[in-house]
Design a protein that fits this description.
Distance between the termini: 23 Å
Largest sheet: 7 strands, mixed
Bound molecules: pyridoxal-5'-phosphate
Shape: globular
Number of helices: 12
Strand order of the largest sheet: 1-2-10-7-8-9-11
CATH class of the largest domain: Alpha Beta
Length: 381
């Protein structure tokens, strides 16, 4: 018998696209979901992680015996931990108190070292303090490499080649468009670049957390993990390549993810609940005949202590109602906040300097070669 995959990283991608007929019938919508939890590390973040590490190896930024240092609320850190285990790198991940116990346990299971950063930044989140500390650590550890998902536009490029191209290959481009959550902007930026190069128009909607200020607004604390930032990330080269912006309140994202699980048997995380709701709202508005694709980033198993824990939900004033009907009420309460061509760009020009971003980090999409290359998925000897 010969194995049909060279190594675990070669199992990346080819995630399924699934109908959600019961929900569509109830809501009068035409939405399908692309299930990214089927990637080997369990989330969509495997795509940029594999891509960026491959790039770093090829360009001499990361060598055998090296250390990968990254700031991550969960999924990107887990992907890097998996890659580190497969390829033999030391991995250090800086997380924050919002990171679930499960995610930390997963990183550690792959052998990563985890540092919990509990100092909030000026926006009330932990992104800036985590990134700053990761950069300081990388300066002190010989052979360190910072993938820097928040500033490295290779993330956008990875999603353009991987997520967006795959979506097209799987559907022959016969879709209305896509809806994706935003944090580092890799997914939405990659989809935006890909769609803008097509001969016909595809609709693209970004889903942010209520309280995040990626597209302006007032910052406040929120509970949706993996979504949001306090500036427009460099991975989004042009905000007006996005057609619609939705900002979803915590309780709506949690409730929608639970409804999807109970009524379609699809167990996904909190950001996926937010994406699903936005996709349904947009589909109701567009009355699209071709399917609108909701990209669901990770698995609900990562949030068993919160999303699927009634005691936690009650303590946080989040509804435990999982009936199909509750979805229509959630949808009725949802409005699109911004639409192209007037989407707000929340640039913070001094951030690169203030946070000590490494000079080798590619922060401008124009500096990435348009020559597509596929990562070579080989294990380090
Ligand atoms: C589950 C999940 N969904 C969505 C996102 C946002 O994706 P991006 O960072 O590419 O904007 C993340 C980011 O960590 C995530 O973990």
């Amino acid at each position: 018998m010969r194995p049909n995959q060279k190594n675990i990283l070669a199992c990346l991608g080819d995630s399924p696209i699934i109908s959600i007929d019961k929900i569509n019938r109830l809501c009068g919508t035409n939405v399908v979901v692309k299930l990214e939890k089927t990637n080997p590390g369990g989330s969509i973040k495997d795509r940029p992680a594999v891509y960026i590490i491959d790039y770093a190896e090829r360009h001499g930024l990361l060598s055998p015996g090296g250390t990968i240092i990254e700031s991550s609320s969960g999924n990107f850190g887990i992907s890097l931990a998996m890659i580190g285990a497969a390829k033999g790198y030391r991995v250090i991940i800086l997380v924050d108190p919002k990171t679930t116990e499960t995610n930390i346990a997963l990183m550690k299971a792959y052998g990563a070292e985890v540092i919990v950063v509990d100092q909030k930044d000026d926006s009330g989140s932990y992104h800036k303090t985590r990134i700053q500390l990761a950069n300081e650590l990388a300066m002190r550890i010989p052979g360190a490499y910072r993938p820097d998902q928040c500033f490295n536009v290779l993330s956008c490029f990875a999603h353009k080649q991987s997520t967006a191209q795959e979506l097209f290959d799987q559907t022959d481009g016969d879709i209305a468009g896509a809806v994706a959550a935003v944090s580092t902007g890799g997914q939405i930026g990659g989809l935006a670049e890909f769609f803008s190069e097509q001969s016909r128009k595809y609709v693209l909607a970004a889903v942010d957390a209520y309280g995040s200020t990626i597209f302006g607004g007032t910052a406040h604390a929120y509970k949706i993990p993996g979504v949001g930032l306090s500036w427009t990330p460099t991975n989004i080269a042009d905000v007006n390549k996005i057609d619609f912006i939705y900002r979803i309140k915590d309780e709506m994202a949690f409730a929608a993810a639970r409804v999807l699980c109970r009524n379609e048997g699809i167990l996904v995380g909190v950001s996926s609940g937010a994406v699903l709701l936005a996709a349904l709202a947009l589909s109701r508005q567009l009355k699209n005949t071709q399917p609108l694709v909701a990209i669901l980033g990770d698995s609900g198993e990562r949030y068993l202590q919160t999303l699927f824990n009634d005691a936690w939900l009650n303590a946080n004033d989040i509804s435990t109602d999982t009936s199909l009907d509750s979805l229509t009420k959630l949808l009725d309460g949802l409005v699109c906040e911004q639409s192209s061509p007037t989407i707000i760009n929340n640039d913070k020009p001094n951030l690169l300097r203030d946070l000590g971003v490494m000079p080798y980090t590619i922060t401008d999409l124009r500096h990435v070669s348009e020559t597509y290359y596929k990562p070579q998925l080989t294990l380090a000897s």
